[in-house]
Amino acid sequence: MNEDEEQMELIPAEEIAVVERHEHQDQDYEYVRNNLQDIIETGSVALQGIVELAESSDHPRAYEVVGQIMRQLAETNKDLIELQKDMKKIKNEESAKKVTQNAIFMGSTAELQKFLRGQGHVSQKIKDVNKSND
């Protein structure tokens, strides 16, 4: 038996998809997070400008716009915090759901038979237990 055969293992099918999903999930999280941060930064600059305009003009509409921008910035900050909470919740749920339902064996039929013989097939173990009890 060569070294490759000794290192054979069953690879759960979900594991392959989960790794790919985690990569996309992390990329999407970073993308959304960066967008929210850019919106907050741009909104803060806009708020400073409109506050100066409102102070110099004393126009009620300018102050109304200041209030709207402030409200929108507060909501965007809340969205950023919610994004953090959602990611934490998703990560916790995924770590709790590590149940393998299907497994893929990567190898030939002969290798599978050798693997099962080496592990001792479940039905063979039951027969062995029944024989020892008799």
Describe this structure in words.
The mean pLDDT is 79. The protein has two domains: 13-101, Helix Hairpins; 102-134, no CATH class. Strands 1-2 form a two-stranded antiparallel sheet. 0% of the residues are buried. The protein contains five helices and two strands, in the order αβααβαα. 81% of the residues lie in helices and 3% in strands. By secondary structure, it is mainly α.
List keywords for this structure.
single chain; 134 residues; mainly alpha; Helix Hairpins; 2 domains; two-stranded antiparallel ribbon; 5 helices; 2 strands
Protein structure class = mainly alpha
Would you report the number of β strands?
2
- Unreliable stretches (pLDDT < 50, length at least 5) are none
Strand content: under 5%
Contiguous helical run count: 5
Strand count, sense and barrel status of the largest sheet are: 2 strands, antiparallel
Mean pLDDT: 79
Secondary-structure arrangement, i.e. CATH architecture of the largest domain: Orthogonal Bundle
Cα gyration radius (Å): 30 Å
With strands numbered from the N-terminus, the spatial order across the biggest sheet is 1-2
In whole angstroms, how far apart are the ends?
36 Å
User: Which superfamily, in CATH terms, is the homologous superfamily of the largest domain?
Assistant: ESAT-6-like
The dominant shape is rod-shaped
